Structure formats: C-alpha cells, structure tokens
Amino acid sequence: MVRVGGRWAPVRDNRYPLVINGVAVVWAPDEIDAASAGQLRAVLLEAGRRGHARVVVDMSRTRFCDSAGFSALLAAHSQALAEDGGLQLVIPDGSRVLRIFTVIGLGRFIPRFASLDQALLPPGLARRPAAAQARQAALDLRS
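The structure assignment produced for this chain is given below.
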C-alpha cells in the first residue's frame, strides 16, 4: 500500500511494510480518518501475521488523525502485544497529531518517538521523549 493524495492505494508488489534492520516500517497516510483507518489497521495486522513482532508506524507526514485512526493504532498495538510484539509510533515534536496523541493519553500505551532513526534503534538503546518534554507539550496545549 502506498499513499496517494493522502489515501491508501493498492500497488502491486508493494502491499506490505518495508523492513529496515529487521523492523517492519509502515508509513501512515497524510490523513487518518474513518475512511482510511481500516486499511491502516489491516496493513499493521498483516505485518504481525508475517512474523514482525515490532512494527514502527511513521506518522511524520500525517497531518490529521481522528478517533478512528487512534482506535486502529491501539487495536493493532494490543494485537501485537498479545503476540509478544508491539507497535511504535513516529510522531515528530510539534506536530498537530502529537497534540492530540498527548491530550488523549495514548502515550501511556503506545511508545512514541520523535524520529524514525530513534524508533529503529535496538530496544535497549531507543529513548522515548523525556518526561519533561512530554509535560511541556501538555502545557503548550493549554496556551
């Protein structure tokens, strides 16, 4: 699947996540809403079925994600956890999606990284944003 105009479009021979250093990476569409959330969830679940315990969702270019999108991410993460894996999200600092992610508290459940490079580090080396940065992001929401 690839993004075309912010939506998922099937492309022959490119239906599954790219694997970088043994980690499945899925690039999220520019907008994740009720129309595209099901496709995103299907791609994430397929990555798990293909044996990828760890899946990184790169949301660097995602400008909008509604409750259907976050529900799809949470469902895929729950499924991955049940299979001894997990989902990791790449949401850059300062993005609109990060503001929503912070407000709804999804960071308590799904690890979030500021960059793809950071998310792809081996689990012992990968660092999530510092607690102080997360608190600052929450304070920024109020202003």
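Interim note for the steering committee: The CA atoms of residues 113 and 128 lie 6 Å apart. The domain at 2-142 is CATH 3.30.750.24 (Transcription Regulator spoIIAA).
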